[in-house]
Amino acid sequence: MTGTAPSLPPPSAWQMYRSMVGVGLVCGLLVVTAFVGTAPIIRRNRAEALQRAVLQVLPGASSTRSFRLAEDGHLRPAGATATGDQLVHAAYDDRSRLIGVAVEAQGLGYQDVIRVLYGYAPARDAIVGLHVLDSRDTPGLGDRIETDPEFLRNFEHLDVALSDDGAELAHPIAPVKRGARTASWQVDTITGATISSTAVATMVSRSAAFWVPRIRRELAALEAPE
Amino acid sequence: MSPEPLWTVFVNAALVNNFVLALFLGLCPFLGVSGRLETAIRMGTAVTFVMIVSSAAALGIDRLLIALDATYLRLIAFIAVIASTVQLVEMFIKKVSPVLFRALGIYLPLITTNCAILALVLFQTTKGYGLVQSLVYALGAGTGFTLALVLMASLRERLELAALPDLTRGTALALTLAGLLSMAFMGFGGLGG
Amino acid sequence: MEQPIPPDPTDAPVPLGEEFRKGVWRQNPTFVQVLGMCPALAVSNSARNALAMGLATTFVLVASNVAVSSLRRFIPRQVRITTYVLIIASFVTIVDYLIQAISLDLHRALGAFISLIVVNCFILGRAEAFASTHGVVPSFFDGLGMGAGFCWALLSIGAVREILGSGTLFGVQLFHDGFQGATVMLLPSGGFFTMAGWVLLLNAVEQRRSRRAAAAPLAAEGAR
Question: Which end of chain A is flanked by fewer CB atoms within 10 Å, N or C?
Fold first, then answer.
C-alpha cells in the first residue's frame, strides 16, 4: 500500500487457509453463541405477541392453546411455540371453557401480502374479531384496514354459519360497497382503500370456508381438557 | 410454494414494488451509474443476469441449510453465493463474449455490493417462492431495476443541457428525480392484485 | 507481485478526537460520501426506526473495525475482502438476533434492512481503507465517528419525514388533533425528497463557507 513497505515473502496457501478457517471458526462461534443465547427470548417474544393478538380477537379469553391440523384431518395439540400455516389457536376463558378459535389468513393486498388474525366463535356461528398482523399498504390509505373502526366493526359479528351438510359456509363472506351491507355475512369495504379492504374480506372468506367446517367437526378435541 | 401466480410475481417485482423506486434497494449504482443511458442499460442487464443466477443458487443453498438445521448461517451463505455468482458470471462472460466483457468492465465486480441482489434472495426466502417463482421474481426485479436506471439516465442526460443552479447538480438533482419517478411508479399500485 | 499487509504507516498519529469528528461532519458517510443510502432512505420514515437502524449499523461498524484491526497482521492480502465480509456478516447476524430479542415490533419495522447492513458499502469501505492499516483504538474511534455521522444523518431524514408525515416525533404528537400529515413524506418519494433537501442545504452551507475562506486572505491583504 505505501511505497516504503518492506517486502515480505508472499503468503503460502497454508497461511491463507489458516487465516480464513481461523476467522471462520471464531465468527461461527460468535454467531452460534448469539443464536443460542437469544433463541429462547425470541421464542418467548413471539409466543407473547401471538397470545396478545389472539386475546384481542376473542374478547373474554384469558388463555390460549395451539392446535395443528394433522394429515388425517384431526386437530392435535401443538406446542406453545409451534409455527406454520396449519395452526389454529383455541382461546379459553378463566373457567377453561372454549370461547373460540383464532385463525391466521393471508392474501395479496394493494402493495404486498397482508396477514390477519380473525377469531371464530363456534357458539355464535360467527367471526367476532379481526386483527391485522402484517400490512405494508399505503400509510393513511390502505393501512386504514388496521385502524378504521367501522371496518373492524364488520368483523365483530360476521356470520359464518355452515350449510346443512356442514361441509361449507351457508353464505360465503362477500365484500360489498360501503354502506351496502344488508346481511351479516357481508363486509363493508372502505372507500379509498377498496383494494386493501376487499383483499381482507376475500382472504377471511377463503380461510373461513376451509377452517370453519373443520373446526366444527373437531370441537370435541378443542374443548377437551389439557 | 407461495400461491401467487407467476404474472403477479413478475409485475409486483418490476413495477408495483420496484426494487429501486419503492423498496430503496440498489441506490448506490442507481445514483452512480445513471448518468449515461448506455452504461445504465449495461449495468441493468448485468444485474438482471446475476440476479437470476443468484436466485437459483440461493434457493438450493437455503434448502440445504434447512435440511442441516443451520438457518443462522443464512446471511453468510447468501453473501458467499452472491460473491461467487458474480465471480462465475464474470469468468463466463469473459470466455463466451470478450466484447461484452470489455463493455461491462468495472460494473460486474461492483454488483457484489449491490444490496438489491442480497435483498432479492432474502425476500424470495421469506416469501417461500418455489424455483420457477424465484426465477420469475429475479427476472422481474432485474427488469424493474433496469427500467428505473434507464428512465433516470434518460432524464439526467436531458437535464445536463438545462439551465439549473450549480448547487443542485449532482446528488440533489438525482434524488429529486428519483422522488418524482417513485411517485409516478406508485400509479402501478394494485396491479396484479 | 502482491504485497502482504504493510506495518503501520509512519505518519504522525492523529488525535482520537479528530478520528471521531471526521466521521460526523467532514467525511459523513451519507451526506458527503453518499454511501449506505439504501437503509438511510428505507427505514427513515420515523425517527425511532432511523435511530435504531443507525445504532445497529454503528454496532456492526465498530465491532468489525475492531475485529479487522486486531486481525490485520494475520489476514493475507489476497483473501482480505472475503474475510472482511465474513466478519461483517457475522456481526450483522448477531445484531439481527439481538434486535429480535429486544423487540419484535422494531424488527418488523426495520425488516430486511438489518440483514442488508452487511452490503452497506461504507462498512466494508472503512475496514479496507482504515481498520486494516491502523491500530485497534484508532479504528474503534473511526468506527464510532462514522457511525455517529450515519446516525445523525439518518435521524435528520427520519425526523423531517416523521414530523411532516405524521405530525409526531418519536411517537409524541406535536400538532393539534386535526393535523393532516403529508403522506408523501412517509412514502419512498418523501425519502428521496428529504435527502435531496438536506444535501442541497449542506451543499449551500459548504459553498458559503469555502467562499468566505477564499475571500478571507484577499480581505486581509487589503487588495482591491
Answer: C
Report yes or no: A35 at the B interface, CB cutoff 8 Å. Answer: yes
> Which amino acid does the sequence have at C220?
A
CA–CA gap between residue A11 and residue B27 (Å, rounded): 37
Work out the minimum CA distance from B158 to partner chain A, whole angstroms.
Answer: 32
B18 in contact with chain A, both atoms CB, cutoff 8 A = no
In contact, A189 and A148? CB cutoff 8 Å: no
Portion 123-162 of C in contact with B at CB < 8 A: 124
Q: How far apart are CA A66 and CA A89, in angstroms?
A: 4
**Residue C4 belongs to some domain of the structure:** no
Which domain covers residue B143, as residue numbers? 6-184
| pLDDT per residue as tens, chain A (226 positions) | 444 445 556 667 787 788 888 888 888 898 889 989 988 998 888 888 888 888 888 888 888 888 888 777 787 887 765 666 678 888 888 888 888 888 888 887 766 778 888 888 888 888 888 888 877 666 666 677 777 788 888 888 888 777 777 777 777 888 887 777 788 878 888 777 777 888 888 888 888 888 888 888 888 888 877 6
Nearest CB partner across the interface for B72, out of A32, A113, A138: A32
Q: Which of C109, C182, C156, C150 is nearest to C25 (CA)?
A: C150
Rg (chain B; Cα; Å): 17
**Is the model's pTM score more than 0.80?**
no
- Alpha-carbon distance of B41 to B109, in angstroms, equals 16
- B190 is a domain residue: no
What's the rounded Cα separation, in Å, for the pair A118 and A205? 11
- How many domains does the structure of chain B reveal? 1
Phi, psi dihedrals of residue A56, rounded to the nearest 5°? -75, -35
Amino acid found at A76: R
Could you give the dihedral angle defined by the CA atoms of residues C77, B110, B58 and B68, in that order, rounded to the nearest 10 degrees? 20
Domain membership of residue C207 as a residue range: 16-220
Note whether C131 and C125 are within 8 A (CB).
Answer: no
Q: Is A80 helix (H, G, I), strand (E, B) or coil?
A: coil
Domain residue spans of chain A? 41-223
C179 within a domain of the structure (yes/no):
yes
Quick check: C192 and B167 CB within 8 A?
Answer: no
Q: What DSSP character marks residue C187?
A: S
The residues facing A120 across adjacent strands are A101, A127
| Side chain identity at residue A157, one-letter code | H
**Secondary structure of residue B171 in the 3-state scheme:** helix
> Residue A191's Cα: distance from chain center in Å?
26
CA nearest to C202 within chain B: B167
Chain A nearest CA to C192, separation (Å): 17
- Rg from Cα positions in chain A: 25
Are A64 and A97 in contact, with CB atoms under 8 Å apart? no
